[in-house]
Structures are given as structure tokens and as C-alpha cells.
Design a protein that fits this description.
This protein has 246 residues and is mostly helical. The protein is built from 9 helices and no strands. It has one domain. Helices cover 76% and strands 0% of the residues. The longest helix has 25 residues.
């Protein structure tokens, strides 16, 4: 993805990522339940959409983020369906270990093999370059977050899990804010926690009976908040301390 289409990583970015996680959780469930395409056809449709966004992005010369955020939502929606399918195909401990390993390997790979100029630009922006490894790691983070968010909700309930994971997310973002330029894997830690928290929070909104919201309305609410953050919140430079990378 061209640099001109990539957002800077700051409070606006993390707010958008968090609500993209809630929205993607709800949209993924709605997509799977309402269309009934199954795992293969459902993922194939999303893959075609993602390819279309990539092709359009390559031809666009304007400095806009719409392509990045469209891919984030498409990938998050697909990740929800992938995790929901495979967690029923193998023992949870095995699936969780595989996901953790994938997240570590792909996240590490996305930050390696860049020259000094690219590394400096990544540190200034606060995120790795958005090549193939980056998007593979983002998909892995989505599947990881869906699975472990479901595990947390199953163990302690959706409400408690949402609060606990929200606190954990604040801690991960604090670490990223302090050390993210020099320790770029902290970006992936924060993304993985945001995906996990978003799963529990999205399910809490959609599935808690006393709230009376339901899946369709929850999808509309979380999607609207996400769009407002991206469209209305002014774009600013990255807030990660670049000097820490020296």
C-alpha cells in the first residue's frame, strides 16, 4: 500500500482500530448468519472485495485513507468467520497455540528486512510498512482476537471480559506510546489486544438481553461510530515519540 494512503498512528488511529474491531465482530456475525454462504464462499467473497480495494488503491494518487480502512474492515469481518469456523474443528488449546505462534511470526516478519530509510519512516509513522506481511499479520490478529475474546467471554462473561480487556488495551497502548518507535512489535501487541477486546465488547452489545440492542442494531451503532471517527476526527501526525528510535 502506498504511504500516502496509510494513516499515522495516534489516538485517532487506535480509536478507529478499536471500533473497527467491534464493528467487524458484529458485521462478521451478521455476514455469516444472514447470507449463509458458508466458510469457503463467504471468505471467497471477502477476498475478491479485498483484491478490488488493493487494485483501486494502486491506481489512486490522492492522499486518502479510505482504502486502508476498507481493508481493515474486510479483513476483520473475514477473521471473525475464520475463527468461528476453526474453533469448532480442533481443540481450543491447539487452535489458540497456533494463532499465538502465527501472530508472533507474522508480526515479527512485518517489521524485518527494511532499509534504514524505511525503518525511519515506519518509526515516524508508528507502524510497519503495509506490505503483504503486514496484511497477513493483521488477518492473524483478527482471528487471534476473535478466538481469545470468545474464550475470555466464555470464562468470565462478556461484561467482565469487556472491562478487563479494555483495561488491558489501555495498558498495551501506554506501552506503545512510551516505547513504540524503538520496539515496533508493541504495535502488534496493541492491535492484538484491541482485536480481542473488540470481540468481547461487540458481542456484549449484540448479545446481552437486558440491553435489548441485538446484532443488526449493534452493527449499525458500532459501524456508525467507526465511520465518524475516521471521517470527522482530524488527521494529525503520529504521537509515538520518534526520538526513542535513535
Amino acid at each position: 500500500m502506498h504511504t500516502r494512503h496509510m494513516p499515522n498512528v495516534n489516538a485517532r488511529y487506535w480509536s478507529a482500530i478499536t471500533f473497527a474491531s467491534l464493528f467487524g465482530t458484529n458485521l462478521g456475525d451478521l455476514y455469516a448468519h444472514e447470507l449463509g454462504l458458508g466458510i469457503v464462499k463467504g471468505i471467497a467473497v471477502l477476498a475478491v472485495l479485498a483484491v478490488g480495494v488493493f487494485l483501486a488503491e494502486r491506481r489512486d494518487e490522492a492522499p486518502r485513507e479510505v482504502f486502508y480502512w476498507l481493508l481493515i474492515i474486510i479483513i476483520r469481518t473475514g477473521a471473525t468467520n475464520i475463527a468461528d469456523y476453526f474453533k469448532h474443528q480442533m481443540p481450543w488449546a491447539v487452535f489458540g497455540a497456533i494463532l499465538a505462534a502465527l501472530m508472533i511470526v507474522l508480526g515479527w516478519a512485518s517489521t524485518r528486512g527494511h532499509d534504514a530509510a524505511a525503518a525511519k519512516a515506519e518509526a515516524k509513522r508508528g507502524m510497519p510498512n503495509t506490505g503483504g506481511m503486514y496484511w497477513s499479520a493483521m488477518l492473524a490478529a483478527g482471528v487471534f482476537g476473535t478466538f481469545f475474546g470468545d474464550v475470555a467471554s466464555h470464562l468470565v462473561g462478556k461484561g467482565v471480559a469487556s472491562i478487563a480487556l479494555g483495561v488491558l488495551l489501555l495498558g498495551a497502548l501506554t506501552l506503545w506510546r512510551r516505547h513504540g518507535a524503538s520496539v515496533l512489535w508493541l504495535y502488534w501487541l496493541a492491535v492484538a489486544v484491541a482485536r480481542t477486546a473488540g470481540t468481547s465488547m461487540g458481542d456484549f452489545l449484540a448479545e446481552t438481553e437486558w440491553l435489548g440492542i441485538g446484532l443488526a442494531l449493534s452493527t449499525l451503532i458500532t459501524g456508525t461510530v467507526f465511520v465518524l471517527i475516521v471521517a470527522v476526527w482530524p488527521r494529525r501526525s503520529a504521537t509515538v515519540p520518534v526520538t526513542a528510535a535513535a
